[in-house]
Each structure stands twice: as C-alpha cells, then as structure tokens.
Amino acid sequence: MPPVEPPRTAWSFPPVESWPDDDDLVAIGADLAPGTILDAYRRGLFPMPFEGAGAPGWWSPLERGVLGLDALRVTRSLRTSLKRFEIRVDTALAEVIAGCADPGRPGGWIDDDVRAAYLRLGQLGWVHSVEAWRDDELVGGLYGVAIGGLFAGESMFHRERDASKAALVGLVELLRDEHADHRVLDTQWVTDHLATLGVREVPREDYLERLPRALDLPLPAPWR
C-alpha cells in the first residue's frame, strides 16, 4: 500500500549547523514514534540504542556508507549462488526483522523497542523487506526505510551462504529505474563485508546535499 503519513513528531532535532564535526552521534533522547523516526531520516539521521542512556541515540556518520546502484559487485560465484534463491518483497517483514535481531548474532543492536518501532512503520508502509527464499523457506533478507528515492538499509541476515547478498542484489534491481541516478541506497556505515559488495564512504556533507533530491523522487514501483 502507499505509505501513510503518521502524526508529526513532538520533538525537535538539533539543526545541522550545531552537529559535532568529530562525532557520528548527533543527539540522545526523543522517542521511536513513527513521526519521529521519519523526521530523523528526512534530516539525515537514524536511531540506534545508546548504551546506558535509556533513550535512543540519533546518528549521522561523518563518513556515510552508500552503495551506488551501478557499483554493486556481483562476483562469478555470487552470480552462480543467485540461481538458488527466489527473491520476494514484503512477504515476511516480521520474520526478517526477527532474523536480524537474533541475539546470537555478534554486535546485535536491535532490541525489542527498535523491533516494535520498525514493525509499526512497516504497517504504515514505510519499512520494507527484501527476502531470499529457497524451497519455500526464508533463508536470508534485509529491511529498511523507503522515503521517496531514499532506501535506508537497517540490517540484513542469512541462514545460507550468500542469501543476504542475494537479497541485496534484488533490492538494487528494484531501485534501478528511470530515477536510479539520484536514488540513494544508504547502509549507514561501511563494514568490511559491505565494502566487498561495492559500498563506499561518502562525507556527511555530501550525503546531506544529495538527500533532498532523493527524497523528492517517487518511490520505486512496487511501493507506490
């Protein structure tokens, strides 16, 4: 369904001019209501728990992870692996978030509050999953927030080798349309794993300059 705009947030985020130029963390506080989260993404921020704060932290990395839609690296072995999977969209959002939130994963940060918040946004049509299935079983996937031409990837998981990569390939194919040159596929930070797939760092100021144009674009066809 087309996304439903929630009530506006009661909170105000700091203006860009006051953001620290030596820290990815911009603010702590507010809430995880749908309107608050969407306002944050539209400003170039995203929430993650901040240990010991009892409230979400709001982050804008000095070096933002961005995957150019023409920069995705699909190796020969990955291309072969892709044949094993069926890619589906928005058929198992709750299961994908649960897979990403598995407490057994190293570096897990998706707590119950975050999980509930993104499920609420999914019900409103703002959060989407791209899933890798094999033999009618979910074996990997990713989820993120789609606002216009921005897709802000939140997390990915796999239960079979290359399943999460297959979901990423599926996402990139979905975003490759007549507006592809100005869409932004945001991965927050760059990990070694993401770097092998073509994700590169973009300075915060460059990301914030690109963001308004991306937000003004129409959603990709499946989510309009």
TrEMBL record:
Reactions it catalyzes: N-terminal L-lysyl-[protein] + L-leucyl-tRNA(Leu) = N-terminal L-leucyl-L-lysyl-[protein] + tRNA(Leu) + H(+); N-terminal L-arginyl-[protein] + L-leucyl-tRNA(Leu) = N-terminal L-leucyl-L-arginyl-[protein] + tRNA(Leu) + H(+); L-phenylalanyl-tRNA(Phe) + an N-terminal L-alpha-aminoacyl-[protein] = an N-terminal L-phenylalanyl-L-alpha-aminoacyl-[protein] + tRNA(Phe)
Subcellular location, principal: cytoplasm
Subcellular location: Cytoplasm
Cross-referenced InterPro entries: Acyl_CoA_acyltransferase (IPR016181), Leu/Phe-tRNA_Trfase (IPR004616), Leu/Phe-tRNA_Trfase_C (IPR042203), Leu/Phe-tRNA_Trfase_N (IPR042221)
Domain of life according to the entry: Bacteria
Keyword Cytoplasm: yes
EC number: 2.3.2.6
Keywords tagged on the record: Acyltransferase, Cytoplasm, Transferase
Primary enzyme class: transferase
Gene Ontology MF annotations: leucyl-tRNA--protein transferase activity
A Pfam short name: Leu_Phe_trans
Stored NCBIfam families: aat (TIGR00667)
Family in the record: Belongs to the L/F-transferase family.
Record-given protein name: Leucyl/phenylalanyl-tRNA--protein transferase
Species: Nocardioides aestuarii
Gene giving rise to this polypeptide: aat
